[in-house]
Protein 1
Amino acid sequence: MPAGEVILDVRDLSVSLEGSAAGQRLLEGVSFKLEAGEILGIIGEAGAGKTVLARTLVNGLSEPLRVSGGQVVYRSRDLIALPRKELARIRGNEIGYIGANPTGSLDPTVSIGQQILEKLRAVQPDLSKAEARERVLEVLAAVRIPAPATRFHEYPFQFSGGMMQRVMIVDALVTNPTFLVADNITQSLDVTVAAQIIRLIRELRERFSTAIVFISSSLPMVCDIADEILVMQGGRIAEKATPEAITGRPKHAYTQSLLERLPRIWGPEIEAPRTTTASDLLRVVDVAKTYRVRRKGSFAAYNDVQAVRGVSLTVGEGENFGIVGESGCGKSTLTRLLAGLEAPDRGKIEFQGKDLGSLKGSALVEMRRSFQLLLQDPYGSLPARMAVGRIIAEPLLIHRTCPKKEIRERVLAAMAEVGLDPALENQLTVGLSAGQRQRVSIARALVLEPKLLILDETLSALDPVEQSKLLELFARLQRDHGFTYIFISHDMALVRKVCHRIAVMYLGRVVELAANQSLFENPGHPYSRALLSAVPTLDDHPFKTRDHLLEGEPPSPVDIPRGCTFRSRCPIAVEACGETDPETVPWSSDSMVACHLAGAAGLGGPGDPGVRHEGESHAQSA
Amino acid sequence: MFILGFLCRRLFQGIVIIFLVTFLIFTLLRVVPGDPARLIVGGMAPDEVVAEKAKELGLHDPIPLQFVRYLGDLVQGDLGNSFIRPKSGASFGGSAYDDPTRGERAEVLGLIVDHLPLTLQLAALAILFSLLISLPLGIAGGLNPGRWQDRLAFFSGSIFVSVPNFWLGIVLSLLFSVKLGWLPSIGYKGFIYTVLPALVLAIEVAPFVIRTLTVSLAQVMQEEFIAIAPIRGLSRWRIVMAHALRNASVPVMNLFGIQLGTLLGGVLVVEYIFDYPGLGLLTINAVLQRDFPLIQGIAICISAIFVIINIIVDLAATAVDPRLEY
């Protein structure tokens, strides 16, 4: 990058929490400079003060936070001390800001085009309405939003998270700012979409020559995009260096520990977890689920949302089974079917050889004891007005599996097992951390002595430290009780670490079902490769984003295209893909793939066997 | 296209509602004690005249049959004739059963059409007054939660909701009509007569509007898009006027659909107090005189108003917030 003019000069910046007795400091003595066209990455864990810094850079702190010292000098003007009127001329015009929550960033009742137009005209009043409109459309096209002229008139709720983040990028860049704050802009997005956004930001930097402060909690992502990186810890700058220096020769102990804790995905020393499974616990045969939803704005027309379209899989006893895919791929619906919360329209689910569909009444209730569901949101899944001990006792009271006298004993035993302080028994959940709350959920599932635990993104709301502690707990429970786990997750690193076999879902179907090692080293489906290519990692990446990353988003589950459903985004699709939906065929000794071109030339992993036909592959796998 | 489907569905629902109301009112009025035929011909009439009248009205037929007959008239726009009120508009005293003026009864539809505009005028002015009172209080409260503006909104709302409307009506007419002589208060001889009753009604409705507006505005102000708007470069004025109020207005609009009941209940009392010749006063007299056709007609009319106003409210809410499904 050209070493140009210094655009932003942050000097000894401190922010404190007003009203707290000790004047708690959230930022302390932060200083750095940003040059024109530079991308400065800021990395740190939750609570490191990244977002506070991002807001302070645009003088957007709200009470009770207050700048207690230092300056943010933008082109020789201190933004913190600037009078409101002058600030209004700069902020939103020369300085752009993009936040972590794209879907909540615009007024839900006004079309996105109108709102960007409103902003542009507010900061550049000289622009005529027609000029402004043209400019908005131009930038909408620049971030590759399809059909910008139509989407201009659509409302925020009609956009997916990824598309909405593109809209917010347009909102920030439409004024052609000299400097942009991007605060965790990929946090709420799927990995593939996040990778698209990162690629976009890099392109736009070239085109608009904007200096960017890029804040993220993902070190690999920041290393990928930034020219220089600030490592933050507890509101202070721990280290400032280039990405190469951070990953190669970290100076600060905190940076080193960050690197060490980073989950590894590829590398010679990585060993996939293995298991020897005796018998099948859960057999899923060709299940499908379609929801009927009344079409908006119509009198009596319905849309059929095909959430799950014929999934077959088996989960062995004592196995860790992973289900991965982008949002909207049908993971959660499949979870609901597996947990028996809803009945499939077609196909059957057998648990220990018994068809769940044929069970009624008390037999079904009894069967439900054997599989328990753990949810993502640790706050919404526990009743707020019940003591911890009572919450954990609830399943025992419902199922009456043990005498009343023993309930308390069982509850305390379960609490001890998941590592909850027995003193919490009579407390409400109010003061508990997310990790502790998940432990309460686990204890609640545990008391029924289930066989299968279904973990629907159970760990994604937790920070990495707490996450690894809970993983250890899961492993211990598996050793002690012989649990089987189904991990539903979008976190490929987690899946790599714990799962024995993994199903990759796309648009309601399993497109690849493979053992851990096969999937990560030798994926057969182009979609699996795309998913893997989007995983941010410092490891030597066998799947380059450049070759495998997808553009666009999955088609709507209402209008499923003919032929292979992945065709519309597939980098290697051929004519045949448009004709028939591919059958699932064996791909390597321990994987199955639904693709006409499984392993097309040059795109496979290490053991690429080239294009094969169905007959051959059967022969080879036999 | 959206609107058409929406209107079809809602109007159909509305007709079902009105039908049910009609059925309910009709049945209830038939089972309560009291003989309509006796009412019509008067207390002095001999029994055979009463029996003849009853036969003429079909009162001896089974209730379902009577109801079907009534519905048949209803779809032709005929709500029947009042039992009591003569066409001339004059009230009657103890005139004999064979007094010729008894024959000519006023049409219910005509009575309603005569009285409804006055009540609509009263209601519209009351809504205007209540908005004038609650918009400043509610907006100030919503923008400054926890501060004195919020408390002012809360306290004034509490006071308004605790004041009985009959008391307020009497006190206001004493003050403005008797003591100060600024406004007339009894009867109706022109638009100025609507002001005092409307004020009383407005104070009855205002606390709900103030509270809803304060709460919903305070909630909207917590939203991310409001917090981020100044960073995007929008002025405070635009943020509040173009975005916060727009979003906060949806619950207030829905409130009006619901509060219509309060408003109509208030109309009964207020019209009675001020002797304001609207639908409310007509209702009270109809009930006191057991004028069944008139009570039925008014009930149907009011349920139709309910249905129409709620359709309008929902349409307006969808126009503001397109996420609401039609």
Protein 2
Amino acid sequence: MPKAKRRRLTAATIAATLGATALAACGSDDDGDAEAGPAELTYWSWAPGMDKVVDIWNKGPGREEQIKVTVKKQAQGDELVTKILTAHKAGKAPDLVQAEYQTVPTLVSNDVLADISGEVGGVQEKFEDTVWQQTTLGTDAVYALPQDVAPLMFYYREDLFEQYDLDVPETWEQFADTARELKQKAPDKDLTTFSATDSGLFAGLAQQAGAEWWTTEGDSWKVGIDAPATHRVADFWGGLVEEDVIDNEPMYTPAWNKALNTGKQIAWVSAVWAPGVLPTVAPDTEGKWAMAPLPQWEAGEQTTGSWGGSSVGVTTDSDHPEAAAKFVTWLNTDPEAVAALAAEGGIYPAATAAQTTGAFDQPPAYFANQADFYDRATEIAKTTAPSAWGPNVNVAYNSFKDAFSAAAKSGDKDEFTAAVRTVQQDTVADLKKQGFEVAP
Amino acid sequence: MSSVAAPRSPAPAAPAAPGAPGAGQGRPRRRAALIPTLALVVGAVYCLVPVAWVAVAASKSGTELFSTFTFLPGSGFADNLEQLNAYRDGVYWKWMGNTALYAGVGAALSTAVSAVSGYALALYRFRGREAVFNTLLAGVLMPPVVLAVPQYLLLAEADLTDSYLSVLLPQLLSPFGVYLARVYATAAVAKDVVEAGRVDGAGEWRIFLRMGVPMMAPGLVTIFLFQFVAIWNNFLLPYIMLSDDEKFPLTLGLYTLLEQGASAPALYTIVIMGALLAVIPLIALFLVVQRFWSLDLLSGAVKS
Amino acid sequence: MRPARRPAYGVKGAPYAFLVPAALLFALFFALPIGYAAWLSLHRVEVKGLGLGSGAREEVWAGLSNYTDALTDAELLHGALRVLGYGAIVVPVMLGLALTFALMLDHERVRFAPATRLAIFLPYAIPGVVAALLWGFLYLPEVSPLHYGLDRAGLPQPDLLDGGSLYLALSNIAVWGGTGFNMIVIYTALRAIPAEVHEAAKLDGCTPLQTALRIKVPMVAPALVLTFFFSIIATLQVFNEPTTLMPLTNGISTTWSPLMKVHRDAFAENDIYSASATAVVIAFVTLTLSFGFLRTVNRRTRQEEAAR
């Protein structure tokens, strides 16, 4: 812990110095300036309130630089990547795109994202290594700048945990015990549900367990889904479903919303963004929730995964990559910009210094009862395990949905084990089909 | 019994309901046919239950949506409306306008294309008629899902993507509309009237406009209605074509409210309200259109 | 106002001239994209090395490999069988109801015709964006009024999104959404029947039911054929209904129907090549079934005409 604390302090100091110089650096720095402006850029983003953040740029630094950015709001989802790829095929991709981390390899592999390492020197240290590495894919290139991170946490109904005399689980073993205990005390309630439609959550849990689903070996990809770490997670949840101590229906349905709202489900493994989602999902429960670190596989460990998070990249179709890179740097590192992103878009910034700025002094409105919410969140964010994405995450995610839906429906733990193998096979088969070298 | 048939034929032969503008109005009330009426009412109720949900849900506040009984009206109607109206300075109304433009202009042009094609296929015997017809119909065999990407690339060549035209143009030809127009033209356009026109020396185009179109009118408004709703609800094409949300139609705009990323809440109440309001123009259109079904197909054009 | 200038074409040329707009639009927005999709279906992407950076991907000739993949895909076959089962419920029920409602609307003494006509058509106009919410609220046991009622009555509550009920749940959405549409097609055709026919039928002493079955139905046969034709195609290309319910349940996979697989390949997995091949296969099956149906019907009507 003391180490983490020190790191945070260091980060804050760096932020103070860097943050203060960021604007100056933009204005006077290198000779690339002459090429940067004037430029008009388009930016595809799905984040709410992004247009307001961009307005700050257009009225301030953007005006000085003569770089005007227009936001074109998109719907987030699987199809957006296809839309970007199609637009790129016609040479009409926007200058800037928001991209979830797991889609970055796909976009890079299709030559959509430009390498901006030459334009963003020095920003690397503003991000955690595990976050940064998702935008470089372990190479010297920089394909995007991190925008938000989404470390996993454990959310629970503080009032109901008290009512049923449950302890907040610190390990997954305790988590299972808590589920059983609750089932015993209140048979019509569930601790939570296993949602087969949320591949991203499962990927995050596997990430916490140490799984590395995609790695490279020389010129070939190695798929590590069918590995002990993933099996550990699958067996754990499969066991709970088999025991019938948690629910097995998907999240984000009217029924699930109601279950969270009425306290039929009393906990939710989710990410740092949950306080922004709970008000619409469970509107009657304000102030009744609390957040704790994600349960650990071994007592005393401190590791988490992530569920979501996104970056912003410059496309190879852009006529003004320098100008675009300048804007991206401002958007994701400038204190004013990041504060606005937090306020307008409700995002939890990837830039470490930004996580401790004024925007996060107060806990989220829905968690007013937990004054140190963001202090703890910052601590947890630091413990995020490295993630390892590959060029066909979407294929693995779809395979996951199908295989684990069937497994969840069967309620048989063995089916969960089999599902992991199915996902591995589908993913490897697809890579091979595309012509990738796949290491055995 | 002739009075019963009156709404069908306002021709001089039928004495009842002179000058009645539409069916039923001014007609003396007769004993209702019980079973058909009952069946229709049951059908209407069946169809209205889910629609009623949209209306009920639009009246619920965010808190009520997931907590109160599904069909219990809520107290948030005005709030939801206000929020929808306030969302990004009323961009919803812009979407509504865009949709009206896409659907209105698109359906009008599409109906015109269907009418002229269907008329030609129904009224003339010419070499290759069935081949042309079958080829046009074959257009529906390939699922639109796989056509969207090629259509995008094609329009990108013409530098038309992200424009109003990119959504309008691909929807102008509707194989369904052509087929329907052919069926209606076959049934409704009297061949002897066309022949009479030719004897009078009128050109083919003139005969089509002056005689064919009025006789096909009830069928054409049906085609218009269908095309209007089809374009109104089309999602994939505008999704691929448009990037500028100022040009979005309603379906796409509302979708962006639901999919703002995992970290942002889906704005359910606003979306439901938006969906409810979107139905209102369609109801209005339907009410206008259904007046045309009451016109007599044959007498209207011929006698005047 | 008799035109002095005669058009360049006569009676012979007129139909060709009339078909020019349709032909142009067809060539541009159907034939070309279909051709391109067919071309794509014969290609695939070849990645070099790790596939990162520019020039790592190349479109190469794939021969028929995408087709052999599609045809040997057991999941696609299962999807086709599921769709046939679904269609066996939807098509007869939907068209039966549509025809019944259309005939009743056309009945002389029916009440509330305009209102019920609108009501039955209205589902077609409900925007798809709220469909998942809508059916979630009506189907999921925790929030469904149906389950609430069954619970109150002490009856067992079925899981509507599993096993055989799933087909009913899906069919219900399709029937709900499509009946009004088909009803209007048939109804409009009924309006085109000349009034004299009705008069004649009445003079012959036909009851309304007899008139409906013996005179009206045969006269709107072309419209019925049309609704059948398009219903078959809509069934084979079913996508919206299962996609709507997919996020609500573990019971529907991303490849539940063949077109869902096409959509997944094209839009979630960025494999437009396989998607195109599968789409061509679907198109061929659709061609066989729907045009086969049209041919059969046409042959029969011709025979009947000849027999008269």
